[in-house]
Amino acid sequence: MSMWLTLVAAGSATYLIRLSFIAFAHRGTPPVWITRPLRLVPAAVLSALILPAVIAPQGAVQLWPLSPRVLAGMAAVFVAWKTRSILLTLIVGMSILWLAGLLLPG
Amino acid sequence: MEGGSPPTASIPHSARAHPSDQTAPGAREELLRGILAEIPLLLGVIPFGMIYGVIAIQSGLTPATAQAASAVVFAGSSQFAMSQLVAGGASGLVIVVSIAAINMRHALYSASLAPHLAHLSAAWKALLAYLLTDEAYAVSIGHLQADGPRTHRHFFLLGAGLTLWTAWQASTALGLFVGARLPQSWSLDFTLPLTFIAIVVPQLKDRAGLWAALIAGGLAVALRGLPVGMGVLLAAVVGILAGTALERRQA
Predict the structure, then answer these.
(1) How far apart are CA B129 and CA B114, in angstroms?
(2) Model pLDDT for residues B58-110, shown as the tens digit of each residue
(3) Residue B18 burial (CB < 10 Å; 0-12/13-18/19+)?
(4) Contact residues, B window 200-219, toward A, CB-based 8 Å cutoff
(5) CA of B7, closest CA in chain A: separation in Å?
(6) What is the chain B residue with the closest CA to A69?
């Protein structure tokens, strides 16, 4: 029973966080001091999710020797920059991850 | 739902406007484009959902509560943390506070989307807020921000959100049912950061964006010892402030 209560409370909290700004935004053009930071949200949040997953997947930073994940990540940045394609980035990134996993020790 | 389209019953079939005649893409087309945009991300989401299902069972959650969490909380990393906390015997209060903290970054998404959804009804806002996840936000924000007619843009977000929702519920159920791990050697979890790279890199067109990304990413690595979610949130906020300050100095 208490697990269900916990779930409802956690779900409500998460939902209210998601709804927060959407619920209170009104029609019209918001001022530039709001729009300027908001434009940077995707780049900042997604990078904060990406970098730890690439260079410290197990918790410890490993930059050198290059791990398969760092190699694959660098290749993915290059492919994404050149092609803007999610699918191509995935194909090249995962291929390099698997290939490097076979060839590199550890 | 398709506001603005004429009542079809009163119009002869041949006289109906073809969707491509309109300047803005129709609701159905936007919905379909949102679904298609979300599909590549499912490669990472489905294994993630299955692993969650397996771990939730091993942590002592019942299949019913584990599945309900996917519907009620609907946020992957916080559900993993919840499983760990349940396994460790944490109290309900600790679990609720932890989940809220991990999911606080969604407030940034909410703020970022708000101007683009301001014209919608309360029901639409309520529905789209429920479907607001890392993955749905990531594929939709660029489309919502783009210039041009935006009559049915929210259907794109709806399509992306519903696709992710369906995949998350189904993969959770599959993980609970199968109860076995996907081969870890496949490293399918890595498709999520790769997808985010594919989305972020083309957006880094100016110095402010580039610095916001580099600072947020670097700080997130430095702060990875913080409880799940807190490091990401703090790093993103500092990155956004730094990028904004840089932009203001240039302006």
Answers:
(1) 10
(2) 788 999 999 999 999 999 888 987 887 787 778 888 889 888 888 988 999 99
(3) exposed
(4) 200-204, 208-210, 212-219
(5) 27
(6) B190
Give dist(CA B46, CA A75) in Å, integer. 24
Tens of pLDDT, residue by residue over B131-140, are: 999 999 999 9
| Global pTM value | 0.75
Question: Would you state the torsion angle of the CA atoms of residues B30, B32, B36, B42, taken in this order, to the nearest 10 degrees?
Answer: 110
* Residue B10 confidence (pLDDT): 39
- Share of residues in chain B with pLDDT > 90 (%): 49
Contact A45 B75 (CB under 8 A): no
Tell me if B216 sits within 8 A of B89, measured CB to CB: no
Q: Give B35's contacts (C-beta < 8 A, 6+ positions apart).
A: B159, B160, B162, B163
| Structural contact between residues A93 and A100, judged by C-beta atoms closer than 8 angstroms | no
The residue ranges of every structural domain in chain A are: 2-103
Closest CA relative to residue A92, chosen from B50, B147, B191, B120: B191
Q: What is the three-class DSSP state of B63?
A: helix
Give phi and psi for A3, each to the nearest 5. -65, -35
Of the candidates B236, B209, B207, the residue with the CA atom closest to the CA atom of residue B220: B236
Judge: A7–B68 Cβ closer than 8 Å, yes or no.
yes
Q: What is the residue-wise DSSP string for A56-85? A: -TTSS---SSPPHHHHHHHHHHHHHHHH--
Predicted local confidence at residue B183, as pLDDT: 67
ipTM exceeds 0.90: no
Angstrom distance (rounded) from CA B132 to CA B154: 12
Residue type, B177: F
Report pLDDT digits (tens) over A20-78: 999 987 666 667 777 788 888 888 988 998 999 899 988 888 777 889 999 999 999 99
